User: Fold this.
Amino acid sequence: FLNVFLLTACVVVLMVLLLLMGLVTLFSATYYQKAATGDALAAVKKQLIGVALGAAACVTLSRVPYRVFRRPTVTLLLLATSALLLILVIIPGVGVSINGSRRWLNFFGLSMQPSEYAKYAMVIFMAGALDRRGEAIRHLFTGIVPLLVVPGVMFLLILEQPNLSTGGSILICALVMLFAAGIQKRHMALLGAGGLVVGAFYGVFIADLCVSFNVSLKVHKAAAQFKAAVHYEELKAELNERRKERQIRRRFLFPFAGAPLGDAVRELYGRYKDRLSESFPRRGKGPRGKKKGKKQ
Assistant:
């Protein structure tokens, strides 16, 4: 009894420490954002409501005999509820989309992650199934593979959110439970190799996605810089045109500016020479420049 009490106390202390760390981190991350709305503790208060509900659920479930969760009807109910929530969260307009991922559902102003509920449903399913199968888990295709169908379906549904870390944790937890149940080492090695292949595939996929995202950012940045450069060149050309227009106007208004006086006079005389000749013809010449004959 003393050992059980010490183990329970350690679990409770660790849980309280994790909750305190989460609250401090949440307060530090949301203080300035929530302070602008008038209540700097809004996010912390909302989280405390969730903590209170979770603590009440924890105390209630601790009073329920664990054999109740071994019943197939209870297990099927948990799995069905988990599948329904995982399907609802990926439906556009139902699941809350944050940064391109749909991982949350809102109920009466409170949010929850169906993937977290799926973890508990998977653990209860695996525990009951491993207990009922007994020695059958020593066979790979008839004892182990059917048990991995449920965690696999959960993994695929969670991956649609997308949430690779939570989906991967469900698979890892299922493998740990299989190992604790006493499956053969060669089967465990085979499952571990398969997990490494899947992890490597999705690791390469995520790396490629990150690289593509980085390249996309660089392309957008280069496009913005190119657009700014084109705008700068257009503005520069427009300023040059305006400067030329001002120079032409200045030459028209101030023809002697920037040149010696004699050159300016000759330029002005050459510009208006024809008009002066037509307006002030020389004596002895007609309007077309011909000499008039004397009358005899």
Remarks:
- The radius of gyration is 42 Å.
